[in-house]
User: Fold these one by one.
Assistant:
Number 1:
Amino acid sequence: MRLSHAFIPTLKETPAEAQIASHRLMLRAGLVRQTSAGIYAWLPLGLRVLRNIERIVRAEQDAAGAQEILMPTIQPAELWKESGRYEDYGKEMLRIRDRHDRDMLYGPTNEEMVTDLFRQSIRSYKELPQILYHIQWKFRDEVRPRFGVMRGREFLMKDAYSFDIDHAGAVNSYRKMMLAYMRTFQRMGLKAIPMEADTGPIGGDLSHEFIILAPTGESQVYYDAAFEEIDYLSGDSFSHEKPEDLARFFEVMTGHYAATDEKHDAARWDQVAANRKREGRGIEVGHIFYFGTKYTKSMGAVVAGPDGKPLHPEMGSYGVGVSRLVGAVIEASHDDNGIIWPDSIAPFKAAILNLKIGDAGCDALCERLYAAFGGNALYDDRADRAGAKFADADLMGHPWQVVVGPRGAAAGTVELKRRATGERVEVTPEEVLARIGA
Ligand code: ATP
Ligand code: MG
């Protein structure tokens, strides 16, 4: 993409409405624009990040054996009346009436709809387990939408649903998703801690939230220092296919104390050595639940069991805040100058900064590099001062900056800067791609 004609409306001034760094930076770097309270339009730079996050989430869901579907955003109220949640959900649910006076709603989550799909289609225990997921927009009329995309009213979620014949199977599916989640967050450069959590309106009795530590987080959290020290996935050889691996993984992940304030247990906290106690704020980027037969019973979903008798499958549900993650990653990775994207989700691998537009050497070298990146670079071809180009590249957070000036172009070199460390090296254009690995 050529910056001179890109739809990347950066802002010089800090927007007054933004209270936290990620919100400020997303607006300043031109990733999103608010269209109404808690509802955002995603612009090219932001959308590329959102898609990259989606891609990692999808890859790890697929690797865990979950099957992707796509359920609609608009749902009939009847399904929610069956489960009893139509009234319970309260004002967070956006209720809609169609032209035939039918009650509809914009889905805040999909337990009812997926249970309905399941009961229409699956007849026998032999077809279980099943894990279905989709990546779809949700609407929750939050009392206080804030912090940009972190607490929006419309937001993108990956939600998965597991169906098993018994408790042991459901627990295995739950562990499978926990492993997929830890790998997902790790690939985004995030260190997430699974914490015991309340089940809330979803219901059920086993639940973990995946928390990223950040001073601006909305949750108060308590955890053992072990989570800071151990790299749980180093040399990761856990297999989704092996229940004994999953049990071992679950044991490791839940062996130390970690809980959000709703589940905080003073007696158990006392057992943690004083010098290992950590308290702080955290951002919830994922939430998993096991809730047994809550929906399959209320909605009459049955399959024939091994003994021929009908049984209600045991379910779990598993959410990742895909759009919230864009903000969460920025909270975890930025400095005074702007965003620092992890390579895996950066909108572009690199920015190419042409310091002298119109200089034949600079122009030719930049064009050559730009072509070599094959769409993975943002080419700053604006007739601006070098200072403005450096500032914008830092603000947008590209992992690498390829700086092309007239002297270097004449000598056949460019400067390569790593955004995260500020480190700069002189290299030949040929070395650029080799180093970046594009
Ligand atoms: P919270 O306590 O933050 O309201 P929740 O427990 O209601 O979250 P879930 O129903 O478990 O959230 O949704 C799964 C994931 O979706 C959450 O872990 C979070 O990352 C994301 N999410 C939930 N609500 C929002 C929102 N209003 N804006 C953006 N992302 C959200
Ligand atoms: Mg909520």
Note: The longest strand covers residues 277-292.
Number 2:
Amino acid sequence: MKVAPSLLSCDFAKMGEETARIDKAGADMIHLDVMDGHFVPNLTIGPAIVKAVRPYTKLPFDVHLMIEHPLEYIDAFADAGADIITFHVECADDPDKTIERIKSRGILPGIVIKPKTPACAVFPYLDKVYMVLVMTVEPGFGGQSFMLDMMPKVTEIKAEIQKRGLDVLIEADGGISEQTVGETVKAGVDIVVSGTGVFKANDPAKAIAFLQNAV
Ligand code: DX5
Ligand code: ZN
């Protein structure tokens, strides 16, 4: 299992140092949650902050766009140093165009679904994306409870990927900790995002290692 700690739970006054700290603790990539106050009822960071944090680690930046118009901002996040950009299938822009724009910048595209969106919503894009992100909480805030009932969706998407002989990763995001990671492994998740579970742990290295080795 790969682990992507979410900076949403870090000390925002020290984002650079926090990124370096979690890199040293053994993270596989860094998850950055971008919120616009429209698509979700919260505001977080934009491209300027992503760019400012970029020099603090060489790990891939997994940028999760919870914004209404991702297409308008792909170039800005590409310039800021994103390696993976995921956007929601429920957004206002055309997913095909958005995927194309991400790819044109040499970045790996991913598509995200909210808890109420069925698995089949991502099927038209499976042959074009690097990953599918299945939300295991309502997007907007860290520290919420893991929704176990999202696991059948992971299994369904995984089965479709295998049926078509594709090589697409599945990421899960929200409420993932030592208590819940086992369920994601069982369902076939490849990458877990963890905010609170890593940044608020007494020993983040131990927390990351636990998630990485979960069975
Ligand atoms: C929620 C974000 C998640 C969140 C995860 O909208 O997409 O990345 O920060 O945080 P935890 O692990 O605390 O649920
Ligand atoms: Zn996220």
Note: The first helix runs from residue 15 to 24.
